[in-house]
Amino acid sequence: MATSTLLVRFTLDGEAYLNSLPEEKREEVLKRLKGPALVGRAELEDIVREIEEERKIQEVRKELIVEVRRSAFHPTAKDYEADIYVDRKKEVTGKSRSKGEVKDFIEYFRNRFRRLKSFFPSVGGLVDIGELPSFAGEEVRVVGMVMDVDKGTNARLTLEDLTGRVRVYLDTSSNPALEEKLQEVVPDDVIMVEGRMARRSLIAKDISFPDIPPVQFPLVERDLAVAYISDVHVGSTYFMEKLFEKFIRWLQGKEGRAETAGKVKYVVVAGDLVDGIGIYPGQEKELVVRDIEKQYKVFQEWMELIPDYIEVIIAPGNHDAVRRGEPSPALAKEFLSLDAHLVGNPSRVTIEGVKHLIYHGTSMDSLIAAIPWASYDRPERVMVEYLKKRHLSPIYGTNPIIPEAVDYLIVDEPPNVMHMGHVHKNGYANYKGVFIINSGTFQDQTPYQLKQGHVPTPGEVPVLELREKRLKRITFHS
Ligand SMILES: [Fe+2]
Question: In terms of Cα–Cα distance, which of 368, 478, 467, 372 is closest to 427?
Fold first, then answer.
């Protein structure tokens, strides 16, 4: 019979399973048991899986370390000191004071409204909604927050500001493009409506979003590059470790073309480093590692294989061990004791003078549901909406928001690069000079995604060569 120095008891199937293991493995499993408890076969199988996973990584590690020593790879990135600035004023880490009370939400939405309104030109005069009745029959411009929107045959919306609310109908005869614009409008957007005030409602001739102005990419003298990844999902049965290993080998100059790899001075990870625990019902059946700390331990072991001269920037996602409400703080050092920049979600990081806006992208689910043409297949089109709306989680509701005194989700200064993940699908665009990058995943299609008909693109890493302003797609899948 199997024994343990701890006061652990086994169920009959647990004991039979334990006795069927080779002696060495049995010893290792017994060492990892935390008693006192009644342990069954399922728990023991978890521990065995974990041991095997760790062993695999150790083997890869040994192999890669030996190869690096022998390597003739001379990366140019190694010759330069890093030039990186994390703007801690613009992220919530260490600054969350919200109690989530009603008055916090009221203050939050007032603050959001005022700041988004300030992005509209006030030239020509804006009218407060409360003053509209005295402008009957006149042309007016108002800025308001969308209370509700009907994109059906009625094509109308309700707009609200701090002084009142008004129903808005579209005058599509003077502007046929208006109906299309309405498709992009979602609840809680702050928009400007130009039109004529009828007796009690406003007849819109145009709708506009706060939008960003065109952005100039800075001049970068050093020939360095940034690699963007996200949604690694370590700990998941579907984590594609062979692809991830190839990515690490590529960074080490041992896979594919070394020229671009040698320029990589920065790796940005936009969340979902691990699969997490209890993220959705039945997730435990899809986990190889069922302990959150161990998931991070495995992720850390992978990260430690990245060459030392590369700076790693890590933001959390909705699967990570941070609060689910956004904005979320950086991951605690107790989970990751890496020599890396742990930043919040969202966060602003300037790399070689290039301004980055890093956000996991969880709110994309609600935007895709609210905009008829939006889809998981084209994340870059949805990402453009964040810049137009100048907010990273415009719709209040499905994506929880913590009402902080400062709205860290507002896109105040337009970035040069906007990096997101979450949808597991690579996507790229350039909007008004901003590089829009969705860095895909290293997780294979999950049963849930299969049911939804969602096809991920694992193993494709976008790399931005900063001096050349050139975005390359490095693919590790066959
Ligand atoms: Fe993910």
Answer: 368
pLDDT digits (tens, 9 = 90+) for 194-252: 999 998 999 999 999 999 999 999 999 999 999 999 999 999 999 999 999 999 999 99
Average of per-residue pLDDT values in the chain = 92
Q: How far apart are the first and last CA of the chain?
A: 48
CA of 62 to the centre of ligand 1 (A): 28
392 CA distance to ligand 1 middle (Å): 17
Closest CA to 64 of 243, 232, 246, 230: 246
Question: Is-cis flag, bond preceding 121, omega within 30?
Answer: no
CA of 390 to the centre of ligand 1 (A): 23
What confidence tier does 2 reach under pLDDT thresholds 50, 70, 90?
Answer: very low
The answer to whether the CB of 247 falls within 8 A of the CB of 459 is yes
Q: Give the range among 89-93, 352-356, 412-416 with minimum mean pLDDT.
A: 89-93
Residue 1: Cβ within 10 Å count:
6
Residues in the chain: 478
Kindly give the distance from the C-alpha atom of residue 402 to the centroid of ligand 1, in angstroms, as a whole number.
21
For the entire predicted model, the pTM comes to 0.88
- Cα(317) to ligand 1 centroid in Å equals 7
Tell which wins on pLDDT, 138 or 33: 138
CA of 82 to the centre of ligand 1 (A): 28
Confidence of residue 1 (pLDDT cuts 50, 70, 90): very low
- Provide the Cα torsion 175, 178, 179, 180; round to 10°: 120
Instruction: Compute the distance from residue 273 Cα to the ligand 1 centre, in Å.
Output: 8
CB 82 within 8 A of CB 310: no
207, 248 Cβ separation under 8 angstroms: no
Gap from CA of 472 to ligand 1 centroid (Å)? 22
Residues 55, 48: Cα–Cα separation, whole Å = 11
Q: Which residues contact 339 (CB under 8 A, 6 or more apart)?
A: 312
Amino acid, single-letter form, for residue 239: F
Contact 256, 314 (CB under 8 A): no
**50 vs 18: CA distance, rounded Å:** 15
CA of 9 to the centre of ligand 1 (A): 37
Please spell the DSSP secondary structure of 71-134, one letter per residue: -----GGGGS---EEE-GGGS-TTT------HHHHHHHHHHHHHHHHTTS--TT----GGGGGG
Cα 126 to middle of ligand 1, angstroms:
42
- Which residues face 122 on adjacent strands? none
Task: State in Å: Cα 231 to ligand 1 middle.
Answer: 4
CA 423 – ligand 1 centroid, Å? 6
User: Hey, what are 378's tokens?
Assistant: 């084209």
